[in-house]
Structure formats: C-alpha cells, structure tokens
Amino acid sequence: MSHSRLARISLLLAAIGLNAAPAIVGMAPVHAAEEKKAPEAPKDAVRPEIFKLIDPAQIKPLLDAKNFTEVQTRIDQSAAMPNITPYEDFVLNQMRVQLGQASGNHEMTVKGLQAMIESGRLKPEDKLRFIDAVAGIYYSNLKDYDNAIKWFERYGTESGDKNKQRQFIVRSYFLKNDFAAAKTEALKDIEAAKAAGTAPSKDTLNLLGNVGIKTKDTVLYLQAVEELTRYYPTEDYWNDLLNRTRGKKTYNNRLDLDMDRIKSVVAPSKMETEDYVDQAQLAVLGGFFTEAKTAMDKAYPGAIPAGKDKKELDSIRASANKGAADDAKNIESGIAAAQKSKDGVGLVNLGYIFVTMGQGDKGIDLMKQGIAKGVAKNPDDAKLRLGYAMIIAGKKDEGVEVLKPLATGTDPRADLARYWIMYATGPKIAPAEAK
Questions:
Q1: Rounded Cα–Cα distance for residues 395 and 402 (Å)
Q2: Separation in Å, CA 175 to CA 110, 162, 168, 180, 181
Q3: Which residues does UniProt assign to the signal peptide (predicted)?
Q4: Contacts of 326 (CB under 8 A, 6+ apart)
Q5: How far apart are CA 79 and CA 92, in angstroms?
Q6: How far is CA 420 from the centre of its chain?
Q7: What is the pLDDT of residues 56-77, one digit of tens each?
Q8: CB 264 within 8 A of CB 279
Q9: Largest CA distance in the chain
Q10: Which of 429, 397, 409, 430 is nearest to 420 (CA)?
Q11: DSSP per residue, 339-369
C-alpha cells in the first residue's frame, strides 16, 4: 500500500464537489414574485460569519504558504460558534481534512474523514472511497494496524467486496506481530484460492513464509516456499526449496544423487561446480558413468585446475570417462545378466543408465521389468527413479502417474515425488494471477 492514498484524498474531495465554496445563509436567489417574503436560507448553507473565516479564496493562499496555525485558528473559531448546524460541521471537517493533508497531520485527516463518513451526507460510492482512504491512512501512515483492520473490514462489509483489501488485513496482523492470526488468515486465503481453481496470491505466500521466519517455524517456511515454487516457479525458489529439503530432519542421505538430479533439471543456473562434482562422485559410486561424465564436463569444461583437490577430481573424471566409454561399448551385454538376477534393482539401474545415454524407451522398459521382478531394498526408491526417468525422457504424463502414489506423507521420497510432479505439470495459474 503506497502513500499515494493521501494524494488521492484531494481528488476524492474534488470528485464529490467538496472543494467548492459552501453556500452562505441569506445569499440564495429570491424570485420577484416572492420579494415581499423573507428569503429562506438554503438547506445546506453556512452563516456569513463562518464563511468569512473559511472562505476558500483565503484558505488556499494560507495553505500554500504553510501558515497552518492560522488555518487551524480559523477552523477552531468557526467550530466555537453557537448552534453549529450539521452542514456547517460537515464543511469544517472537510477543512480539517484539507489542513491535515497539507500539514501532514494524519490524525487530523483521518478524524475529519471519519466524521464526514458518519455524517450521512456522502453518496454510497463516495462513502466507500472515504472508508478505504481511512483504512489506508491507518495502515500506511499511522501504522495503527488494529484500526486498519477495523476499517478494511468495514469496507468489505459495506461494499460487499471482501477480497479487494483482504491482503492488507492479513498484512496488518503480521505487522502488528500477531503471527498466529496472520498464519491462520493466510492459510485460509491460500486454501480458498485453490478451491476456486486459482493461484494463491504471491504476496500471501511470501507473507506465510515470513511468518515462518519470524516464528522460527521451518516447516511453515518450507510449505510457503513449496507453494511459491508450485505456482510461481523460478530457479531461486527451486534452489531454496531443494536446499531446505536437504536440511529436514526426515531427509535421508541415500537420496543425495536424486536431489542432484532434480536440481540440475529445475535450477541449472544454481548448480555450482561443487554440485556437479558431488553428482559425478555419487554417480560413479552408483555405476552411472555416463551421468558422471556429463556432470564432470559441466563442472570443469576444460582442464581441472591445480589445487589441493586436483588429484581427487582427476580420479573422478578418469573413472567417469572410462566407465562411460565401457558402457557405450558393452552395456547391451549386461541386460541378460540383470534379467537373470532374483532382485530387480540391477535392471532398474541399468535402465536408468540407458536413459542417461539418450535411449529413453529402452531404459524405461528395463526399469519397469526390474520393478515388476521386485526390488528388495527401498522398492519405492526404484519407483521414484522410474517416475522421474519418464519425465526426463519426455513421458511426463506417464511419469506423473507413477509418482502420484509416492507424493504423500513425510517420507523424503514424497518430497521428491511432489517436486518432480510440480516440474512436469507446470504452474496452474488462472489468467488474472499469471501477470
């Protein structure tokens, strides 16, 4: 919410004719046929003695000259007149709004606006605009978030549009450090957006993440980052999401290579040299030499520079290059042996190697055979790898169906399954939210 609300108040006053000079008692036109009758004062008029004090022709130069004390004195003298009429009170509150705006006295501005709102003299549409302005001043200028909430909610009630200023109600709870309420309201809005088939507001998701930071609730923060990544994917969000997933208490290091694989796909610009080396080293240990060679080539496109780790890095590269060359020549010969094994893990791994070599159909078929045969240790890991292998190979819909049963619960595989599904399906954002 910007400070432009105050600037707009003068436009609101002008739009409803409140910058014009008020009518004066005794100056209404009298028809010739009624000359003998005493003229009646207009219904809405101020007395000459008050008009003399608040004549816009005099007030404007005083405001321009920043002679705010004199303007205040004139308003006070007018207000002290006996038997102030409702219209005179309305005009004086208009003057208070103008003075408050010119002098930066937000308390005066907001009190004047409130009095005008309660006067019953505003058209419904103008009343709503003034209610909105009051809420904005409390929020932006006075930092009085309790009153901001009250007036934003009043705007929603009287306008029938409870969504227009909803984000500022939730922000107000956050800014007044009522993090429990901010969390509750933000989650309510997120679920409502999903139920309506639209994307939750990016501001709301960011606010939820900030609540997680303020309250040191890492689970809540990760939830917010996951939703941001789902609906507004960027490499920064993906990188944060994956890094924090590694830090979860439920995370298991056996999935490190799986994490490197998804990061290299969803956030390639965030892959550091060390990330590619880690992927290459783990791939060599797992027998995925073509994958390891690709990772090392990305880590060091040229010669590995001299340094304390040069020997180890040269060894990883040598193993990757040799293994990749052997796979290119001899991988076919390994199929029969893997098919004879009682455990299907060999077929699953062999199939993934074919996928890394660009032979997706063949690799996926072998992985399916391995899973059908049965994998003794962590069988769902094999299903996870089959699912994302399909996605990598361009069979996204089929891969998503494989991953869906794995994508629930607190198991670390569930996180990876969800993330691959998010990547494969892309953000589901309604047109209004896609801007």
A1: 11
A2: 20, 20, 10, 12, 11
A3: 1-32
A4: 289
A5: 7
A6: 22
A7: 999 999 999 999 999 999 999 9
A8: yes
A9: 122
A10: 397
A11: HHSSSTHHHHHHHHHHHHTT-HHHHHHHHHH
Task: Read off the tokens for 71.
Answer: 């303007």
Q: Where are the alpha helices (DSSP H) in 160-288?
A: 166-175, 179-195, 202-214, 218-231, 235-246, 256-266, 273-286
d(CA 110, CA 97): 7
Give the pLDDT confidence of 184-202 residue by residue, as tens digits.
999 999 999 999 999 999 9
Coil, helix or strand for 46? strand
**Full 3-state SS string of 86-142:** HHHHHHHHHHHHHHHHHHCCHHHHHHHHHHHHHCCCCCHHHHHHHHHHHHHHHHHHC
Q: Which of 19-33, 101-115, 116-130 has the lowest mean pLDDT?
A: 19-33
Torsion of CA 228, 407, 222, 298, to 10 degrees: -80
pLDDT at 43: 66
Give the Cα separation of 127 and 236 in Å (integer).
44
Q: What is the rounded CA–CA span in Å between residue 152 and residue 155? A: 5
User: Rounded to the nearest 5 degrees, what angle is found at the Cα of 320, between the Cα atoms of 345 and 380?
Assistant: 25
Q: Say how far apart CA 3 and CA 18 lie, in whole Å.
A: 22
pLDDT tens readout for residues 86-97: 999 999 999 999
The two three-digit tokens of residue 430, written as one number: 């309604």
Q: Which amino acid makes up residue 333?
A: S
Report pTM. 0.84
